[in-house]
Amino acid sequence: MVWLLLAVRYARKGFLASVVQLAGSLFSLTGARAFSGWAAGQVFQNFFAGSFRDQIAASITAGGVVDLSGIAQRYAGFLPESFRASIVEACERSVSAVLSDNAVVLADVIVQKVLAPLLTPVISLVLFFVAFALLRMLVSLLVTVLGLVNKLPVVGTVNRWLGWTAGGIASLLDIYLVLCVLWALIVITGGNLTMLNDTVMSSSLYYKVFNVFNPFL
Fold first, then answer.
1. Dihedral (CA of 188, 190, 193, 196) sign
2. Which pLDDT value is given to residue 19?
3. 90 C-beta neighbours (distance < 10 Å), count
4. Runs of H (alpha helix) within 44-115
5. What whole-number distance in Å separates Cα of residue 170 and Cα of residue 18?
6. Can you list the residues of the chain whose pLDDT is less than 50?
7. Which of 6, 25, 41, 57 is an S-S bond match for 107, by CB 3.0 to 4.6 Å?
8. How many CB atoms are closer than 10 A to CB 160?
9. CA 67-72-77 angle, 5° bins
């Protein structure tokens, strides 16, 4: 039903507008994914890593105790506990290998091995949706202009009929993008929302297909 309603909406725009909308959505999706994947690491290193390193080094110097689970909880406590635990467990060897070094070196290892894997995906998600929204805004402007073709005699009629084909495909992509948002909310909230978690969403055929083609995994 959702797919049909979206397909009708696109069909009314016409073939040219729907094709541009589809191509623009694909471009926005791939462009935003590529940009966020690259930029997330840069943002973390340039804006967060230094501050985290100084805070952790000061804490180690003052207390002399390295609690990786506590550090992960402090800086990334909003993420699912199982995800935090897997990252902490994976880097324990790296940290133990430099325990004899000074606090700054140890703090840098913790930042790169614990906090970076935890927070970079979250930063990537935020950047993805911001970049996607900006790109889609540009596409929407072009689609609005092409929608005027429907007002032309004969050509406008053909354009509207062909719009059903492009609209059907474009509507599937819109559903896919909505599922991206829902998946991001499930991850950020740790699946603790009553009406929005993997258990509830697993009953949806759309969500099952989405998990196979999840761009973030």
1. positive
2. 73
3. 12
4. 50-63, 68-76, 81-96, 103-110
5. 7
6. 154
7. 57
8. 18
9. 135
208: tokens are: 């099952």
DSSP state of 46: I
Sign of CA dihedral 155, 158, 161, 162: negative
The reported pLDDT for the residue numbered 121 is 86
Tokens found for residue 127? 């950047």
What counts of helices (H) and strands (E) characterise the chain?
10, 0
Q: Which two tokens stand for residue 41?
A: 């690491």
Alpha-carbon span 175 to 205, nearest angstrom: 12
Q: How many CB atoms lie within 10 A of CB 203?
A: 8
pLDDT reported for residue 39: 94
Q: State the pLDDT at residue 212.
A: 80
Both tokens of residue 29?
Answer: 């999706």
pLDDT of residue 147: 62
Provide φ and ψ at 188, rounded to 5°. -65, -35
Residues with Cβ within 8 Å of 157's Cβ and at least 6 positions away in sequence, in order, are none
Check if the beta carbon of residue 46 is closer than 8 Å to that of residue 120.
no
CA angle, 73 then 74 then 79, to 5°: 45
Which residues are registered as beta bridge partners of 193? Answer: 196
Q: Report the candidate in 67, 100, 99, 97 with the shortest Cα–Cα distance to residue 84.
A: 67
